[in-house]
Amino acid sequence: MSSLSARPVPPDQPQRQRALDPASSILVQAPAGSGKTDLLTRRFLRLLAEVDDPGQIVAITFTKAAAAEMRHRILAELEKAANIKAPPAEAGESSMDSLARRALERSRALGWNLLDLPAQLRISTIDSFCRELALQQPLLSGLGDGLDIHEQPEDLYRRAARQALGQIDSSDPQLCAAIETLLLWRDNNWQEMEELLVEMLRNRDRWMHGFLLERDPDRDVLRARLEQPFSNAVREQLTELSRLLDQVPQARAEALELARFACGQSGGALHQELAEHAEFPTAPFHDSEALEEARAASAHLGTLLLTGGAFRKQVDKRHGFPADRKGEKARLLRLIAELKTIPGLESALAGAATLPPARYTEDDWLIIRACFTVLRHAAGQLKVIFAEAGAVDFIEVAQIAQSVLHGPDRLPTDAALVVADNIRHLLVDEFQDTSRRQHQLLAALIAAWPEREGRTCFVVGDPMQSIYFFRNADAELFPRVARFGLETTDGSALSLHRIALSDNF
User: Fold this and answer.
1) How many alpha carbons fall within 13 Å on the CB side of residue 375?
2) How far apart are CA 322 and CA 134, in angstroms?
3) Is the pTM for the entire model greater than 0.85?
4) How much is the pLDDT for 468?
5) Which of helix, strand or coil describes residue 125?
6) Is the separation of the CB atoms in 55 and 422 below 8 Å?
7) Who's near 185: CB < 8 A, 6+ residues apart?
8) How far apart are CA 20 and CA 26, in angstroms?
């Protein structure tokens, strides 16, 4: 790819100039065709003219091809600068030729000899960077000083799954009971259980958290923690539904009376759950029991008033309103007409029918606890198999890298302080495709910086181009970082200046 320096100055040149500030941490939103590789190359060259060692700059990409392209671009510009006999007559210190010339002068002055020793340029994929971190403490991998990557680890996952299920006759009563519970749940289908375990091990970076690895966690605390997202989502939607219903006085009482009528007409076959309420639950909902009662009542209210997610247009004996009871039919249609005038009420009622329970049932909680027990043992078996095979997968490398950067107390380790001290500038390409775990890795690294002055983080991407959902990429992270900064593990946040490119080449 040729340099963009020969092109006319783009309208967003001031933004591109700001993106080269070596003292600022920056988030760049760069739509397709806006020249983000060119911008990354320019910033890398600009930083080379500032640092004491080229290894103090770390550029992270997602693919080997992207890393190779960036390395090629930087070296090509340095080679071109080396062949220029005199400084170019090009205006502006941000021109590619000027940036490359200054970087080359720095290389010569400090004896880096970059053109002959290009391996000093730290440009790698996120997986390679994690491996580099993991090798800082080889004992954590259980593989000594080797950390070979098994490119197709499916057979390792399957061996771990089979060995975990094979513990059904072990001396561990908790594990035996958990396996039996799950097999009964899946109709004793061993093959299905094995496939489910293989799938979970393949995606264990999504679910392996500290609480899951504890042998005897506080079950009540764990249950409350896991139910909290359900409760929050249900409470938010039901509170909004309650607010909308408040706009039609006596709507709830009228709905309950009509539900009781329909229940009586149908001999209890219709709307019985709604009819049994003495009063319809209203916000605020103070505990999980009140929340679950409101969720069920709201779903039953939707059954009375809606069909196919929209307000009913007619009712008859099939709904508990026979032809000879015109008064009650008219009351229901009148209630629906009043509720229909409230914007958003129809969709809120329809949404209430699809809300998950705010709490696990006891049967569900039994299954979940059994899953945790078996998954913990399967993850342990996988570590043993990795050691036997002398190789790991990329997820294991990333987890080891995390453990290098911070301990159980979430504070930087001694190894993290050493690694972070040697990095003054981070550049991250395709930031929209960063997964939550990779985001946490960057956060832990920045938290380990002994001081932030003179250090920067530069990320570039476009949320509209996120393609790595299959690798657990979280598109929500890009706008969150743009708004709040990069939240680090020490509870602070690194603010990033936001720059949006607009010109399309």
Assistant:
1) 23
2) 73
3) no
4) 43
5) strand
6) yes
7) 367, 370
8) 9
- 18-30 pLDDT, tens digit per residue, is 999 999 999 998 8
Going by C-alpha positions, the residue among 403, 365, 438, 501 that lies closest to residue 140 is 403
* For residue 256, pLDDT beyond 90: yes
pLDDT in tens, 460-497: 887 665 444 434 444 567 777 888 888 887 778 888 99
Which pair of tokens denotes residue 332?
A: 């229901």
Q: Find where tokens 């008219």 sit.
A: 330
DSSP letters spanning 294-358 = HHHHHHHHHHHHEETTEE-S---GGGT--TT-HHHHHHHHHHHHHHHTSTTHHHHHHHHTTPPPS
Residue 119: C-alpha distances to residues 54, 77, 116, 123, 377 (Å): 10, 16, 9, 9, 41
298-325 confidence digits (pLDDT tens): 999 999 999 999 999 999 999 999 999 9
E-strand stretches of 355-485? 391-392, 425-428, 456-461
| DSSP symbol at 412 | B
Residues 460 and 451 sit within 8 Å (Cβ to Cβ): no
CA-CA-CA-CA torsion for 61, 65, 66, 68, nearest 10 degrees?
100
Q: How many degrees, rounded to 5, is the angle at CA 29 between CA 23 and CA 35?
A: 90
Determine the Cα–Cα distance for residues 72 and 57; give it in Å rounded to an integer. Answer: 16
pLDDT in tens, 315-360: 999 999 999 999 999 999 999 999 999 999 999 999 998 998 888 9
CB 406 within 8 A of CB 440: no
pLDDT in tens, 120-137: 999 999 888 988 888 876
Is the bond into 284 cis (omega within 30 degrees of 0)? yes
Q: Is residue 35 exposed (0-12), middle (13-18) or buried (19+ Cβ within 10 Å)?
A: buried
